[in-house]
Design goal:
By secondary structure, this protein is mostly helical. It has twelve helices and eight strands. The chain folds into three domains: 73 residues, no CATH class; 59 residues, no CATH class; 91 residues. Helices cover 41% and strands 8% of the residues.
């Protein structure tokens, strides 16, 4: 988020408009005003530089995807990664736990069973259920169980990913919409939004984006809850409308 705030190569104001920082006095002064150096700079610091321990006591980075792979290795191998595939000890911090979700519902008089139906579905070893925190808060605030993913930029790209031309992907999406858990090999994913070699790479990306829940024990993925199911259905309906319109124009 710091890179998005400072980087002058694009307008990131929409990411912060609904946050407290947008009301801060000095917020506009530094928004998108600077050149930000990304992976190559980090690689120079952390990849075989011999200077890491003399410069940094500790570094903590957050992001949607794991660190980009360069060939067969991570571009920055000095970091321990915790992801949606393997959150390890940090699984309970991905979202609200079952106890936290229940406590919030009791505090604000919200139906917990409906909350579970709409926003539960992610589950990590030794942690149990994890709830989408953004959607839980908005459902409580607005007194409305709905899909709040449409407010994110990634929602616009869902159809682009699930319509990629890989053998078995269309069938897999149909099975997922039918409530079936399907096998996914997460090992070959390149950790970016553009490099896809097969169906499993697409499914792995959707795990990291939160569109699919991953069971580490069975190595399977599934659509986690009603909110995400609606996003899949909405994307497919939208694509069908576009295709029908294009066919009408060409007739």
């Amino acid at each position: 988020m710091l890179c998005a705030y400072y980087d002058k190569t694009y307008d990131s104001a929409y990411l912060f408009n609904d946050l407290k920082i947008a009301a801060a006095k000095h917020y506009p002064e530094h928004l998108n005003r600077y050149d930000v150096i990304y992976l190559e700079f980090l690689r120079s610091l952390f990849k075989n530089s011999g200077t890491t321990s003399r410069i940094f006591a500790a570094v903590y980075m957050t992001g949607i995807l794991p660190i980009k792979k360069d060939g067969s290795q991570s571009a920055i191998s000095d970091f321990e990664e915790y992801s949606m595939v393997k959150p390890r000890a940090f699984g309970e911090y991905v979202g609200f736990t079952e106890a936290e979700g229940r406590a919030l519902c009791e505090r604000f008089g919200t139906d917990f069973s409906k909350m579970k139906h709409w926003y539960d579905g992610y589950c990590f070893p030794r942690i149990g259920s994890i709830y989408n925190p953004n959607s839980v808060i908005k459902a409580i605030r607005h007194h409305d169980f709905d899909s709040y993913w449409t407010e994110s930029s990634m929602a616009e790209n869902l159809m682009e990913y699930i319509s990629l031309d890989f053998d078995g992907l269309s069938k897999t999406i149909v099975e997922l919409l039918g409530g079936i858990a399907v096998f996914a090999d997460t090992k070959g994913f390149a950790n970016d939004l553009v490099t896809f070699k097969n169906r499993d790479d697409v499914l792995t990306l959707l795990i990291h984006l939160g569109y699919l829940a991953y069971d580490e024990t069975t190595k399977t993925v599934r659509i986690p809850n009603e909110e995400i199911r609606q996003e899949f259905s909405r994307s497919i309906r939208h694509q069908c409308i576009i295709e029908e319109w294009n066919e009408t124009i060409t007739q």
